[in-house]
Design goal:
Blueprint (H helix, E strand, L loop, with lengths): L1 H9 L21 H8 L3 H5 L18 H8 L12
Keywords: Hydrolase
EC number: 3.1.6.1
GO molecular function: arylsulfatase activity
Amino acid sequence: MGRLTVRLKAIDEYQNTLVLVLSDNGLSRTTMTDHIQLDGGGAELIKQFDNTFEHRGLPRSSVDLGPGWAYGLAAPFRLMKGYQS
């Protein structure tokens, strides 16, 4: 959001822009590494990502937070994506 705001202000479109933030049903405790361990596929795909801090949110990034962050960031709810209740 910060980069978007800076860019919109730089091109003088900030006041003319409506930003909608949409979300799916929350965080997942499953990471890409979990999927690789299940079926062995996708290892080459993960090598293509640049997940350095400076590159997060840009093309070719895909950051997994993992189960610890999924539990913490899903608060105040008990569980996260993939669970019924």
